[in-house]
Design goal:
By secondary structure, the chain is α+β, with helices and mostly antiparallel strands. The chain has 3 domains: 6-58, Structural Genomics Hypothetical 15.5 Kd Protein In mrcA-pckA Intergenic Region, Chain A, CATH 3.10.290; 67-130 and 218-240, Alpha-Beta Plaits (2-Layer Sandwich); 134-214, Alpha-L RNA-binding motif (Alpha-Beta Plaits, 2-Layer Sandwich), CATH 3.30.70. Helices cover 22% and strands 29% of the residues. The chain is elongated and about 65 Å long.
């Protein structure tokens, strides 16, 4: 009986070294070896008796899977390594020995809820558009917003030739003295700069943006730059696809 084989990128992702997409990049850039030979072909299958290494390090001994929620501060980039030597979100997890990476991204000047893990399979699931994981933001915008202005966001607006999915949006308050408004907006897509571009589209340029919630995970108890490990039941809910927000007692 032939041994069961799996795609190389899946094996790398399950080992916690990268997301599925990140694993594909590791392969195509020649950083992966199978049985001491560099493999660049996506779709290559390996079995339990094949020896896989990334950057010369074997992946046979899988790291413990870990999951963290970070309250990302301003001025930090959402990546593991930055060519400009800027501070990264991974730098903030100073006492985490595992090699974690962010699930999705937040802009340099955007703050708030960011999940980091070494569970490539879960990360890939959460970032897949079909999963429709809600992300809730609070935006400070220029101008005194009106219901008429934000209504198009509820139907979707066209950005770069593509219409966005309908968003949940509401006006929280106005500051007549400073001519600004606070807007809450929830989306499930993950395009670059999406919230900023959506609000700019309706004449409300963003001054400050915070992601208040990722799925059901919020920032309660976390100051900017602080993080916490997810609880067992939180990880279970994410893996089961139960992304609904629960009311706090």
């Amino acid at each position: 009986m032939d041994e069961e084989k799996e795609r190389l990128q899946k094996v790398i992702a399950q080992a916690g070294l990268a997301s599925r997409r990140g694993a594909e990049e590791l392969i195509t850039t020649g950083r992966v070896e199978v049985n001491q030979e560099i493999v660049r072909t996506l779709g290559t299958k390996v079995g339990p008796h094949d020896h896989v290494s990334v950057d010369g390090v074997p992946i046979e001994e899988r790291e413990k899977l870990v999951y963290y929620l970070l309250n990302k501060p301003r001025g930090v980039v959402t990546t593991n390594h930055d060519e400009k030597n800027r501070h990264t979100v991974v730098d903030l997890l100073s006492d985490v020995s595992q090699r974690v990476y962010p699930v999705g991204r937040l802009d340099y000047d955007t703050t708030g809820a960011l999940l980091l893990t070494n569970d490539g399979t879960l990360a890939n699931e959460l970032m897949h558009p079909k999963k429709r994981v809600n992300k809730a933001y609070l935006a400070k915008v220029k101008g005194l917003a009106t219901e008429e202005q934000i209504q198009p966001l509820r139907q979707g607006v066209v950005i770069d030739g593509r219409k966005t999915a309908p968003a949940k949006v509401a006006i929280s308050r106005w500051d007549h003295t400073k001519n600004t408004s606070m807007i809450t907006i929830t989306i499930h897509e993950g395009r670059n700069h999406q919230v900023k571009e959506m609000l700019a589209k309706v004449g409300l340029p963003v001054i400050k943006l915070t992601r208040q919630r990722y799925a059901f995970l919020d920032l309660v108890g976390l100051q900017p730059g602080e993080y916490r490990a997810l609880k067992h039941d939180e990880v279970k809910r994410l893996k089961e696809g139960n992304y609904r927000n629960l009311r706090r007692k």
